[in-house]
Amino acid sequence: MSFAELTGRRQVARLRETALSALRAYPFQVRRLRLLNHGFNTTFRVDTQDGQKFALRINVNSRRSAEQIAAEMAWLAALSADTALRVPTPVPLADGSLLQHIWSSDLQRDLPVALFSWLPGGDLGDEATPAQWREVGRAAALLHGHALNWPLPAGAALSSLHHPLMDSANHLTGDHELLTAERREVLDETLRRVQEVLTNIFKREVPRPLHADLHGWNLKWARGKLYVFDFDDCGLGVPLQDLAISAYYLRPAAELEAALLEGYAAQAPLPSYTPLDYESVVAGRNLVLLNDVLVNTTAEIRAMQPRYVRNSVLKLRHFLETGEYRHDLPGVEQAG
């Protein structure tokens, strides 16, 4: 039985062994290993015998190269050193390296594994306030300001986010039982429109490192302070993309989306865009997520594929017809 065919519980059990193998390289004894997330990647909380806490991430579904992950680690280290932003700091191994590759017999490939400093608090999730999202906007502006002048170190590289699917291979046009001819037509036209917008924006703006996944489950809040984590999708793009990605997850909460933009504008000028540019990049986020869902190996995500495809096509067809991207449409099927 392949890894993709295992239940979620059995997948986590196998990955727990990968995590424990990676942790043997650090100078502490593990007291407890607890699952935090099993989705695109898998993350465990690590409690040590001497009272330390860390987060260990295994890149299970990520297709990022060693050079791209090296760039992520270097940028996190620089953000920790150069700014007041609260981000996870990579924990070095004895030789100073920030990443391991652990062989997985289940997936028949090496899995990148990294250990990070622990961030306190709970995820903002979908219960955040406008005041909190103003802080997210401010943090995004600080990230973009730092990134504009930060040089990539030797041996590190970031992929371009110029394509609507970012740096992922296109699975939206391949053979898949859920992608009928009618559905492909909607996806193809959305891809074309989003690409046109991104091409025009990239011509007039200087690409820089972006977080590229700023949503409420990659943000923590503790004692009035914001923490930003999960830079696994970072790449070279333009500031509008980070804002539009956040907006995708906030809708239909217009007051939260407005707070995000207000917070950004209080720290730095908002990027220039037309309403259609903005809506197109928001819709592009749906393409990215659908593209990943179609090939994801995590059991729970595989189970949601039929519903996710139906909902995505409905939302993207509405965008093509109206120029507005919405989640709250008649006919959209909710989880559960």
Instruction: Count every beta strand, where a strand is a DSSP E run of 2 or more residues.
Output: 10
Summed up, the helix count is 9
> What's the N-to-C terminus distance?
27 Å
CATH superfamily of the largest domain: Aminoglycoside phosphotransferase (APH), C-terminal lobe
Using the alpha-carbon principal axes, give the shape: globular
Oligomer description: single chain
Helix content: 40-55%
Number of domains: 2
Considering the chains and any ligands shown, give keywords for the structure.
homoserine kinase activity; 15% strand; 336 residues; single chain; globular; Aminoglycoside 3'-phosphotransferase, Chain: A, domain 2; alpha+beta; Phosphorylase Kinase, domain 1; 2 domains
Plain-language structure description:
By secondary structure, this protein is α+β, with helices and mostly antiparallel strands. It folds into 2 domains: 3-118, Phosphorylase Kinase, domain 1 (2-Layer Sandwich), CATH 3.30.200.20; 130-322, Aminoglycoside phosphotransferase (APH), C-terminal lobe (Aminoglycoside 3'-phosphotransferase, Chain: A, domain 2). Helix content is 43%, strand content 15%. The protein has helices at 8-23, 66-82, 130-148, 181-204, 239-250, 254-267, 275-293, 299-303, 305-322; strands at residues 30-38, 42-48, 53-58, 100-104, 109-117, 122-123, 208-210, 219-222, 225-228, 235-237. A 5-stranded antiparallel beta sheet has the order 1-2-3-5-4, covered by helices on one side. The protein has a 3-stranded antiparallel beta sheet with strand order 6-8-9, with helices on one face. A hairpin with a 3-residue loop joins strand 1 (30-38) and strand 2. Helix 3 crosses helix 6 (254-267), helix 5 packs antiparallel against helix 6 and helix 7 packs antiparallel against helix 9. The radius of gyration is 20 Å and the shape is globular. 39% of the residues are buried. The model has no long low-confidence stretch (mean pLDDT 93).
